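User: I'm curious what two different proteins look like when written out as structure tokens. Can you demonstrate?

Assistant: Sure. I'll show them one after the other, since each token string lines up with its own sequence. Here's the first protein:
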Amino acid sequence: MEISDLITTDSVVADLRVTSKKQSLQELSKTAAEITGLHERVIFDVLMERERLGTTGVGNGIAIPHGKLANLDKLHGLFARLDKPIDFQAIDEQPVDLIFLLLAPESAGADHLKALARVSRLLRDKKICEKLRGTDSQEALFAMLTESAAHQAA
């Protein structure tokens, strides 16, 4: 599973302007709805349900919200670089400015977990995160995410 299997340039948001966790999930749900063809409210509800179980703010300014949806045909990813860090109730209590949203079909099982692990591994790399934080170009962000992942796999 590669990052390029999950995202396209259309699923990269270079400068998301939000002021809260809820607003970030609402805005990302809108973009995800355009990509998946599902209703944004359905996506938002699944994401909020997952957040109620425990934060997806994994630390170091990173959040990986995720959920499973019945009418999804394949795994979908969405990356957002926030214009300003927000409180995401992260486990390290630090604000979040990089979000990688992951949506999976209900039947995905192991593929969902593999994708989560792949995204987590990529975003644990401090150098990659520094580069992501240092650009506001959608194309450059996409290239960094997909090229870095390819180099890590090699």
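Here's a second, unrelated protein for contrast:
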Amino acid sequence: MLYSIGAYLRVSIEDDNKKESESIVNQKKLINSFINSSNEFKNSSIYYYTDDGFSGSNFQRPAIKNLIEDIKIGKINCIIVKDLSRFGRNYIEVSDYLYKIFPFLNVRFIAINDNYDSKNNKDNLIDLDIAFKNILHSYYINDLSKKVKTSKISIAKQGHYISSYTPFGYKKNTQTRRLEIDEEQANIVKMIFELVFEGHKYTQVCKILNAKNIPTKSYFKIKNGERKDYSKCKNQNKIWKPQDISKIISDEVYIGNTLHFKRKRIKCGYVKTIKSNEDEIVKVENTHQAIVSKDLFYSVTPKKRKSKQFIIKNIFAYKLKCGCCGYSLRSREVNNKGSLCRKYFCTTKNEKENANCCRHSIFEDELKQLVFQSLKNQIVLLLDINVHKENNTNSKENISIYEKQIEKYNLDKVFGYEKYLEGQISREDYLIIKQTLENNINSCLNEIKNIKEKIVEINQTNKEKDIFKKYFNSEELTKEMVDNFIKCIYIYDDNNIKIEWCFKNSQ
């Protein structure tokens, strides 16, 4: 069998001084040596997947995701790692891949230092030694995670700043691990507090800052290398917005206090970030020099209050953007023909007088109707597409036909080589035959890849179809439907909208 090998390399700590860490280099040398020493892997294609600086506690790693995707489309049929801990340290997830997922996908898995080869474990019986190592790796990462968190809490309580990003107005001293004032940014922070103290509303503060072309937080992050310059993005936060002002005047960092662990990550099918409870936040006072006085801070900082009820009911929350400037729309209750209704509108013109924006707005009821009709049209269209794909997809049996052809071509290569050794054909004729057979093999591999891609696409569209059917007979738009199907809605003049869908094949 001709193998297409995915060599997976991982190390937990990035080496800032070299392009690749020594650990990565050593893993690559070991894997290459193993491949070169085996006749079984001659003429195999090798692809390298490297996660440098990523934990093995989960599979949310860029290279491992790319590897899994390439396996699904048939590009990789053999994985080789230095040892099991490089692949992952979570016992349950690693075991699922070794004994369920990879056997189902006909993928061979080799862990060199653990002397594990799935080819020698055809019955999928769990080797006790391997299972025990997986448990140890899982225990190790859980124990390490607790120790790291405990250590971070201890360091935070000592007044050190442990967050990856420095707050606006400050810079981080890498030696003392404490915050120091950035004079250029700090002057802007002082200006914001003073303007709010003088009675200016957030929108008015933005208008003043934007009129003076005061640089935004994003500008300084790009300047200091903390954020890439997303020049291709429509919205680059070129102007100050009310939410920027709100975050600054409510952050205790500006009176010398440090709050850590304000947000936490939880798993719910996927990893998401949520606000921490009050007792989970670590607050340390007087850890660094303040930019504003406590009297000024508490005189302008709004008291904490519960979120308004309409935010919970708003089915378009975080989905609406102006089609002209790209900023998020705001909303308020207005009187429309004698009845109260919600209206969404762009505020960029209020925050910057000469902004290139057309003040797009739309009533919620009208938007619901437009989005609901568009969604129903998409559902009907996509259900038809799915049926069409099911009726015209090549059978899985074709894969085995191409695999048998590949085996035949490989045998022909061996026979051709034997004829060359026996002097029955010349070296030139042998090379021509070999090249022709390799071209045929590559052609078969491409056909297999195409078929597997179609199978994966069918499986995905079948899942989508089940979701579509659930809402096919719905009579009105719901927040659940918006969250499941819509990424973003851009609002233009005359109630024209553009919808970015969450599913493939959208029209």
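A detail about the second structure: Residues 265 and 273 are 4 Å apart (CA to CA).
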